[in-house]
């Protein structure tokens, strides 16, 4: 295929760089409030613009008929965002990669990445070809609402970064050399991802809650007393979410997970402030 990526941001640069290493032709063009004329030999136009700019870009592209199919890569919007192009191109669609794009220069490995692909037939066919060329896995997932889908992606991708930031603060506060912490936590997250990919849930869960070790959880909470309260609350929320996984595994001794739950409930109680006049 001959593919044009519209945009100069992290996603556009990464997809263009990766596709340029395949047999497909790839070109990167800036949007900057306008969409350039698309040549007649282009098979697929990929809009890698901000979510709030997709519809305007579609209107500009619709000013002249296109031989190409047009897709966007936003997770929170469906193919309907390209409605102005309906009947004015070979087909419209969406192909959203479940991947994290954090830099204009350092691109993620897209092999094995799932992409949610939907839309009109020709657009879906060409989007699938793009995804497969990048080593990805095209998924249809009909019936999944865009907002819920995007929330799940944000919870895992952006939430993992927030968890790493909290872990970094705790480690540095405990005396770990700051320069070592990010690579160490990155490697830890990589092994979690490998466990999730190879073993699935709930078996990817590890740690004291899987074992039902209430004493370890209590010691963690005590150690976090010196940290800002939002870090302790984050630990507690994540620990509560692990209980269901641990129950499904069934490895903890009888009553152990109930004790962990009691420790977590106690940590969540807000102690009333003493009235200074009664001291």
What does this molecule look like?
This protein has helices at residues 10-19, 54-61, 121-133, 146-173, 178-199, 208-211, 214-223, 229-249, 256-268; strands spanning 2-6, 25-29, 44-47, 69-72, 92-97, 114-119, 137-139. Helix 2 (54-61) links the parallel strand 3 and strand 4. Helix 4 crosses helix 5 (178-199). The protein folds into two domains: 2-139, NAD(P)-binding Rossmann-like Domain (Rossmann fold, 3-Layer(aba) Sandwich); 146-268. The radius of gyration is 24 Å and the shape is elongated. It is built from nine helices and seven strands; from the N terminus they run E-H-E-E-H-E-E-E-H-E-H-H-H-H-H-H. It has a seven-stranded mixed sheet with strand order 2-1-3-4-5-6-7, with helices on one face.
């Amino acid at each position: 295929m001959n593919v044009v990526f519209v945009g100069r941001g992290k996603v556009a640069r990464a997809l263009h760089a990766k596709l340029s290493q395949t047999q497909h032709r790839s070109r990167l063009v800036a949007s900057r409030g306008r969409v350039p004329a698309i040549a007649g030999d282009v098979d697929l136009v990929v809009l890698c613009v901000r979510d709030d700019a997709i519809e305007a870009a579609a209107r500009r592209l619709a000013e002249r008929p296109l031989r190409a199919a047009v897709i966007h890569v936003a997770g929170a919007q469906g193919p309907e965002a390209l409605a102005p192009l309906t009947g004015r191109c070979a087909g419209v669609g969406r192909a959203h990669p479940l991947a994290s794009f954090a830099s204009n220069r350092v691109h993620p490995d897209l092999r094995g990445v799932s992409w949610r692909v939907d839309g009109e037939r020709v657009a879906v066919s060409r989007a699938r070809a793009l995804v497969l060329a990048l080593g990805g896995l095209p998924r249809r997932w009909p019936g999944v609402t865009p907002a819920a889908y995007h929330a799940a992606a944000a919870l895992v991708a952006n939430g993992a970064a927030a968890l790493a930031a909290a872990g970094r603060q705790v480690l540095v506060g405990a005396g770990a050399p700051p320069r070592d912490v990010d690579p160490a936590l990155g490697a830890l997250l990589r092994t979690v991802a490998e466990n999730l990919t190879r073993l699935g849930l709930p078996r990817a869960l590890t740690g004291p809650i899987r074992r039902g070790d209430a004493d370890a959880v209590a010691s963690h909470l005590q150690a976090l007393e010196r940290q800002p309260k939002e870090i302790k609350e984050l630990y507690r929320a994540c620990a509560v979410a692990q209980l269901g996984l641990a129950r499904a595994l069934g490895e903890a001794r009888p009553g152990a997970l109930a004790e962990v739950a009691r420790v977590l409930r106690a940590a969540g109680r807000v102690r009333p402030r003493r009235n200074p006049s009664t001291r």
